[in-house]
UniProtKB/TrEMBL annotation:
Highest taxon of the lineage: Archaea
Source organism per UniProt: Sulfuracidifex tepidarius
Pfam families tied to this protein: AAA_14, DUF4143
The protein's name: Uncharacterized protein
Residues passing through the membrane, by range: none
């Protein structure tokens, strides 16, 4: 199929504005209860995030909003870049759009661009060539590998990550209630304590939502289906991840062995050497390479040891999936069963706490002391110990911080015992996009 044919097929609103409502992503949003549409960004943006998190849905609902505001249909261009091989294809695509369809400014949506070879070079050429003059440009991808280096120097393209819904967003949207308590700074223990008291009447509802969050996670697509999303979306998510690995030239066998070892060691300290030794991989450098890759694909979050306010990159690490749904998918992929057993919940909720902290604060890690006593997470000298069941002040082996339990609450001068659901709600901000 020629590029012009692909353009026409992917932009049916050029012929009939109402065709936007026939789009699969748009139909799912409009039929969902509650309906959740993310407001369009007013700045050109490079949006990266895990597969199935809702990046394409965001683009399509933004297009719907623009059409409903009366924007000329041919000034809105969407293209899924999976079929493009390299920067030459990308440049040819925009050249044909500008010469044949729309010579003026408008709105450009380029979905899954980051696997196009030298996409950033092609995009820079298009900026320099004036193809994006008087236009807002939205570019998405599933990998942040190329963002480690400056990709578009001097260009007005905000870099953001689009991550699974945090617990606050999940509760406010799907439990239909905003509690009118703002996000709290974990470093301001007195302020967080005051806000926690305001949430006590809602503890039952928050705990109910937390159990649902552990099952569904914050992957946007999972919240459109009834029942257990694992059964309807497992193949979709798994195949998307394996497709990304193939595009990056990675070995599925190595990836699968590493993921299975991470699950077997979930919540425990582990090293690349340990993974290499306990699998058929053998090389710790190969393990390190694949761990970096899965971080860049937003599947895993790696926490390093904090020693004297410094990060020890050579010590053991703690590794968690970025979302409970991803954990369940990868468990089924490696072990054939994705149900979460009761004994797994404390480790999975520990990962949820770590992910929420890592999104809001730089330099989040963990620490441990002689005798094997560990502190699950450390944020700028504040310790966070995750207990899930019961807990007390002695559970935290640091001078100040939080002990997170299922439903207990106690306040001391430098330590606070809090229910997990209240803590997660308070440390979460109301946002989808996180600047890189």
């Amino acid at each position: 199929m020629s590029l012009i044919s692909q353009m026409s097929f992917q932009n049916p609103w050029w012929i009939d504005v109402k065709r936007i409502y026939d789009d699969d992503q748009v139909r799912k949003v409009l039929s969902s209860n509650p309906r959740f549409v993310i407001p369009p960004s007013e700045q050109s943006a490079l949006i990266v995030g895990p597969r199935q998190v809702g990046k394409t849905t965001y683009m399509k609902t933004t297009i719907m909003s623009l059409l409903e505001k009366g924007v000329e249909p041919k000034k809105i261009f969407f293209f899924s870049c999976d079929s493009l091989k390299d920067k030459e294809d990308l440049i040819s695509l925009l050249s044909q759009y500008r010469s044949l369809i729309n010579q003026e400014g408008g709105f450009i949506f380029l979905d899954e661009i980051t696997f196009v070879r030298e996409w950033n070079v092609g995009l820079l050429h298009l900026f320099n060539g004036g193809y994006f003059k008087d236009s807002l440009v939205y570019v998405s991808g599933s990998s942040s590998v190329s963002l480690k280096k400056e990709t578009l120097p001097g260009r007005p393209l905000m870099k953001v990550s689009f991550l699974p819904l945090n617990f606050r967003m999940f509760f406010d949207i799907f439990f239909k209630k905003s509690l009118n308590v703002g996000a709290s700074n974990v470093l301001d223990m007195k302020g967080l304590q005051a806000n926690a008291m305001k949430l006590v009447p809602y503890l039952g509802e928050l705990n109910k939502a937390l159990f649902e969050y552990l099952k569904r996670g914050g992957i946007f697509a999972t919240n459109y289906v009834d029942g257990d999303p694992l059964y309807s979306l497992y193949e979709t998510y798994k195949d998307a991840v394996l497709s990304d690995l193939a595009k990056l030239g990675k070995d599925e066998r190595i990836f699968k062995e590493i993921v299975e070892k991470v699950i077997d060691s979930y919540g425990s300290r582990i090293s690349e050497n340990t993974i290499a030794r306990d699998t058929s991989i053998g090389s710790h450098s190969t393990v390190s390479n694949y761990l970096d890759l899965t971080e860049n694909l937003f599947m895993l979050r790696v926490f390093r040891k904090i020693e004297g306010n410094k990060v020890n990159n050579k010590s053991f690490k703690k590794i968690y999936f970025t979302d409970p749904f991803i954990y369940r998918v990868m468990k089924r992929y490696t072990k054939g069963l994705g149900d979460m057993e009761e004994g797994e919940i404390p480790h999975v909720i520990e990962g949820v706490v770590g992910e929420h902290l890592a999104r809001e604060y730089n330099g989040v890690g963990y620490t441990f002391f002689k005798g094997g006593r560990e502190v699950d997470f450390v944020v700028q000298g504040i310790g966070i110990e995750v207990k899930w069941g019961k807990g007390n002040f002695t559970d935290l082996r640091m001078e100040k911080g939080y002990i997170l339990t299922f439903d207990e609450m106690e306040f001391g001068d430098k330590k606070i015992v809090l229910p997990l659901s209240i803590f997660l709600y308070l440390v979460s901000s109301k946002k989808i996009f996180y600047e890189l």
